[in-house]
Amino acid sequence: MNEYRNGDLVFDVREEGSADGEVIVLLHGYPETKASWEDVIPGLVSAGYRVLAPDQRGYSPRARPKGRRAYVADNLVADVLALADAAGAERFHVVGHDWGGAVAWYVAMWHPGRVKTMTSLATPHPTAFARSMLSSTQLLRSWYFLFYQLPRLPEWSATSQFGGRRFRETLLRSGLPEQKLDAYMAVLDEPGAMTAAINWYRAVPFTPPTRHRSVSVPTLYVYGTADFALGSKAADLTGGCVTGSYRYERLDSSHWIPEEAPEIITKLIVEHVNS
Predict the structure, then answer these.
(1) Is the pLDDT of residue 51 over 80?
(2) Which domains, from first to last, does the chain contain?
């Protein structure tokens, strides 16, 4: 399978591994694509798993609906369930990084019957993140959430052909490898792609905190201590939002955990899904 559908939207997906293996869904973040997992996938396949890594809504060229409401969490979760259904996986393991981690939390919160285990890299539980806004420097770290609510200017500031030089320099300083960044920006420079990616942020107000729930499925949370975007307060609070078995790992890494520490991440994921 190299593509799947959710309604009228067509998503590109990388599938590797035995058709008989348990399914692991890998969800990338911003401004990444499924290529962020390319150094993680081989190890998961070697361990006997069937791996599905999609380009998510807005990143797949044929899945770029217009308008910020198209990117609400319900739709992002529905995309993951549609992928699992297309793969014939009633239950699956879900792993996410950055925005993909947020989607993984929502899938586990709202559809625990479909999820065998969940893993989030960098991204804390949404409730822990909200609480950290009032008890740490997280609000200052997250200034760009407000900036991304503006029309047009965020796209101009990030797209390569316009004002994206500072955006690029910021990502490189934060630890994202240049070769990876070049590949990601090649996608986001496509017509409509950057707006679609930023619409994930613009849709945040349409998922109220009242929809946040504790997670009952076995959970692994991995936090990089040099993360420029997410502080340790929310990471430390996340365990209180999980009622199932919980493992919390802190790595000496940046925000870009899949790119920077793929061997460690692969080992942790395999241990978690086997536990």
Answers:
(1) yes
(2) 3-274 (3.40.50.1820)
